[in-house]
Amino acid sequence: MLAKRIIPCLDIKDGRTVKGINFVDLRDAGDPVELAEIYSKEGADELVFLDISATEQKRKTLADLVYKVAEKVNIPFTVGGGISSVEDVDVLLQNGADKVSINSSAVKNPQLINDLVGKFGSQCIVIAIDAKQIDGQWVVHLVGGKVPTELNLFDWAKEVEERGAGEILFTSMDNDGTKDGFANEALARLSAELNIPIIASGGAGNMRHFTDAFIKGKADAALAASVFHFKEIKIKELKKELRENGIPVRL
């Protein structure tokens, strides 16, 4: 079995790391370059860097910040936020990113997934999907969770896979920032219906939640922000506990 991955997420707004609850009420969580370096040294398997203001404000992810972060880490690194073209991705990869994450632009122009995969390969392309339950259905949302679509989470995930994406980052907006655990039922269904890796996001509050995401949710990786940023969970201790629960991780 492949090792499960632990991924700190750095949500960036105006050059600072921020964290909110249910995608709102943001508070400062530190300098992204410093945090990235700390996580790399503490044993994180990967990092995700999302400029959460980029799509909303119609500006591009800050390539120079990506460069600074990439200089400090020796682990794979995904960048997202406002990416809408092959050219955008080219710039980010040249500045040190290993992968890119696209969300709103993929929904608006699904062919972009095919174009990016054709140019850079599946291994570079992560599709982020933000969804929340409305009348019992998981509905995909855009622009940092502000705009609902008519897309169903599972249908869209299947299309994303068919178009060649290498990975899906699924954030449950209902769980995000609540620290009540991941959306394990939805994760398990995604894992059962798809053949590409699923990254769980939204809801981590304690170590048990990570264990549940891997055992109940069948996730390939688990992503969290505030529990790492505010030192509520230390990565080395988390990995030790996961291994004690029979979950393969890199120590």
Query: Averaged pLDDT, please?
Result: 91
Helix content: 25-40%
What is the general shape?
globular
- Give the tally of structural domains: 1
- Summed up, the helix count is 10
In total, how many beta strands? Answer: 12
Residue fraction in strands: 25-35%
CATH class: Alpha Beta
State Rg.
16 Å
Low-confidence stretches: none
Q: Output the CATH homologous superfamily.
A: Aldolase class I
CATH fold-level label: TIM Barrel
Give the terminus-to-terminus CA distance.
Answer: 15 Å
> Do you know the CATH architecture?
Alpha-Beta Barrel
What summary fits the major beta sheet?
8 strands, parallel, barrel
Sequence of strands across the biggest β-sheet = 1-4-5-6-7-10-11-12
The structure class reads alpha/beta
* Helix-strand sequence: EEEHEHEHEHHEEEHEHEHEHH
Topology:
Blueprint: E1 5-13, E2 16-21, E3 24-30, H1 32-42, E4 47-51, H2 63-72, E5 77-80, H3 86-94, E6 99-102, H4 104-108, H5 111-120, E7 125-134, E8 137-142, E9 147-152, H6 153-162, E10 167-172, H7 184-193, E11 198-201, H8 207-215, E12 221-224, H9 226-229, H10 235-244
Parallel strand pairs: 1-4, 1-12, 4-5, 5-6, 6-7, 7-10, 10-11, 11-12
Antiparallel strand pairs: 1-2, 2-3, 7-8, 8-9
Helix pairs in contact: 1-2
